[in-house]
Amino acid sequence: MRRFALPVLALLALAAPACGDDGDDKDSSSTSTPAATTPATTTTEPTATTPSGGAKGDTDLTKKPKVEVPDQPVTTLQKKDLVVGKGPAAKAGDTVDMQYVGVAQSTGKQFDASWDRGPEPFTFPLGQGQVIPGWDEGIVGMKAGGRRELIIPPDMAYGAQGAPPDIGPNETLVFVVDLKKIQ
Predict the structure, then answer these.
(1) Count of domains in the chain?
(2) Are residues 35 and 62 in the same domain?
């Protein structure tokens, strides 16, 4: 039933502006945008929005992004495209070249960044278990030339053991990742 509620509500929202219109508009120079031009959207995965997460304004992929962390830890992987690439989409088995910044949610402190090691990207085979599960799953579908925010729950990161000294036990991790190239 919930699956059908959003489309019905969206249709009602689009129809609502027409209700009560007597057709006697004295000012036809109104600058408001008709509701019909704003499509209703539904998402199947949660996404964070600034200020609780994101890299607001960081769309220049030649520069290291700033990472904003959510106020609370998450229990499911969250991914949000900050810049949609124009290249092919990454899939398991592809070797990907990435630039990234990683921040611990509880401290708000950066624990790692490929950007700090120079222009060479971090390269790995996607979906082969050579990175944390949040990356193996979170980068799939990302297009080359794009930037994505990943908010990774502890069970898809380093879990109860953490990765001392920079990543504590049961830490939610926030990454902004750039997919430079798929090999």
Answers:
(1) 2
(2) no
- The pLDDT tens digits for 67-112 are 999 999 999 999 999 999 999 999 999 999 999 999 999 999 999 9
Ordered DSSP codes for the chain: -HHHHHHHHHHHHHHGGGTT--S--S-TT--PPPGGGS-----SS----TTTSB-TT---TTSPPP-BPPSS--SS-EEEEEE--SSPBP-TT-EEEEEEEEEETTT--EEEEGGGG-SPPEEEETTSSSS-HHHHHHSTTPBTTEEEEEEE-GGGTTGGG-BTTTB-TT--EEEEEEEEEE-
CA distance 138 to 116: 22
pLDDT band at 51 (very low <50, low <70, confident <90, very high): very low
Q: How far from 118 is each of 50, 88, 104, 176, 177, CA to CA, in Å?
A: 28, 25, 22, 17, 15
Please give the angle made by the CA atoms of 34, 38 and 42, to the nearest 5 degrees.
Answer: 150
Q: Which two tokens stand for residue 113?
A: 């960044």
Bigger pLDDT: 22 vs 5: 22
Residues 9 and 85 in one domain: no
| 111 and 77 within one domain | yes
| Phi, psi dihedral angles at 5 (to 5 degrees) | -65, -40
